[in-house]
Amino acid sequence: MKTNNKNTTKKTWIQYGVFALIAITLYATGLHTEVIGFAQRGLLATGVMNPDVKELVMAQESANTTDAPNLTKADMNFNLLDSDGNVTSLKELKGKVIFINLWATWCPPCIAEMPSINTLYDTVGDDVAFVMLSLDRKFETAKAFNERKGYGFPIYAPADAIPEMYNTNSIPSTYVIDAKGNLALTHRGMADYSDPEFIEFLYSLK
């Protein structure tokens, strides 16, 4: 009986050791973020994290028929560094619907929503400007991650101070600017942006 107990205890410690080794390896390689992000996609699939865009669509339709004095103008005075080292500005995107997403490779919820953003980009990328703004300390880290994942959307790093309107301690954070330069959406946290209702919302902003 004692022998069986010893064997069971030994097996338990071996299992703990294997789990610990896996955990250490994941953290050492930085892959723990992707593992956690992958697990969080199950929550995204429920749709409970998505922004409620139905009212926003109605408000946008109303704005298209009125002067809409209560709409907030987006701050376009923001310079961006693209993955080729060129500096551009939000001003250059004026007149287009703009999807801005603040993310980082160390942020599991950011990683969780990335596939849906890439699907969104494949769907509306010809009509909507994407600004995937990396907050990684080293932009090279973000570029290497994006290349490894094979995502098609363009990524940027801040070329100067992030305007107060987009400055947040909570990521991922997403902002949508309509074609008239109004801030149409602010969403804190992850979401499934490939949702048909969200796509309809973006098209309503043109």
TrEMBL record:
InterPro entries: Redoxin, Thioredoxin-like_sf, Thioredoxin_domain, Thioredoxin_ResA/DsbE_sf. Residues 69-206 form the Thioredoxin domain. Pfam families: Redoxin (PF08534). PROSITE patterns: THIOREDOXIN_2 (PS51352). Gene3D superfamilies: Glutaredoxin. The chain crosses the membrane at residues 12-31. The keyword Transmembrane applies. It comes from the Bacteria. This is TlpA family protein disulfide reductase. Keywords: Membrane, Transmembrane, Transmembrane helix.
